[in-house]
Amino acid sequence: DAKTTQPTSMDCAEGRAANLPCNHSTISGNEYVYWYRQIHSQGPQYIIHGLKNNETNEMASLIITEDRKSSTLILPHATLRDTAVYYCIVRVVNQAGTALIFGKGTTLSVSS
Amino acid sequence: NAGVTQTPKFQVLKTGQSMTLQCAQDMNHEYMSWYRQDPGMGLRLIHYSVGAGITDQGEVPNGYNVSRSTTEDFPLRLLSAAPSQTSVYFCASSYSGFYGYTFGSGTRLTVV
Questions:
Q1: Cβ atoms A65, A71 nearer than 8 A
Q2: In this complex, do B50 and A97 lie within 8 Å of one another by their Cβ atoms?
Q3: Cα separation of A74 and A88, whole Å?
């Protein structure tokens, strides 16, 4: 799986958009980008994933650059409950015999 | 309720004792994984399974055994507990292995 690089920490004001970047410059054509978050030592929660098109669901939007070497997770209106560690993971589609490998992630602090 | 159930939630062991952490899911997921998370650290993969009867090692497998006799259950055995195994243990499952994983709420283990 391609290596990802994320900032260690970020701050965001409540109600504003939180934009979390992820660099994956060695990504290959058959690798998806996944985002998970972990709130205060709970089990990680799946947020969104994408291959090359931008994706949106009820939680967030995922913007992947055209060359796929980086992506941004967008929380459009951050709340205090969005304070968490956010993990960007790159993984081969349908790769047999593997599981998710987590990096260090970005600690997002949302304040009022 | 559908989801991943981990038991016990808390456990204190003495050095040298053995025990089994239980993980069960009722979503008919083929893929299951075990992770440990040390204080202030990210998740590290211990063992994983891609179906009943099939398991493999992750990043930090030493000191742990797993088996997968049914689709629903994926127990993690600590053979001889050591203080270095003090951690929070998370179990996760997925239908496809690359789509969103569902995590349990964790088992907090202290080895004294």
A1: yes
A2: yes
A3: 12
Cβ atoms of A63 and A74 within 8 Å: the answer is yes
CA distance B5 to B23: 6
The answer to whether A95 faces chain B, any CB pair under 8 Å, is: yes
Q: What's the one-letter identity of residue A60?
A: A
Which tokens is A97 given? 């015999």
Structure tokens given for B61: 């497998």
The type of residue at B12 is V
pLDDT in tens, B50-100: 889 999 999 899 999 999 999 999 999 999 999 999 999 999 999 876 667
Please give the DSSP secondary-structure letter assigned to residue A81. Answer: G
Give the one of A36, A43, A105 whose C-beta lies nearest to B106's C-beta: A43
Q: Residue A43 is nearest to which of B44, B48, B90, comparing CB atoms?
A: B90
DSSP 3-state assignment of A37? strand
Exposure string for A41-68, b = 16+ CB within 10 A, e = fewer: eebbbbbbbbeeeebeeeebbbbbeeeb
Residue A8 forms contact with B (CB below 8 Å): no
3-class SS letters over chain B: CCCEEEECCEEEECCCCCEEEEEEECCCCCEEEEEEECCCCCEEEEEEEEECCEEEECCCCCCEEECCCCCCECCEEECCCCHHHCEEEEEEEECCCCCCCEECCCEEEEEC
Q: What is the mean pLDDT of chain B?
A: 93
**A63, A72 contact by CB (below 8 A):** yes
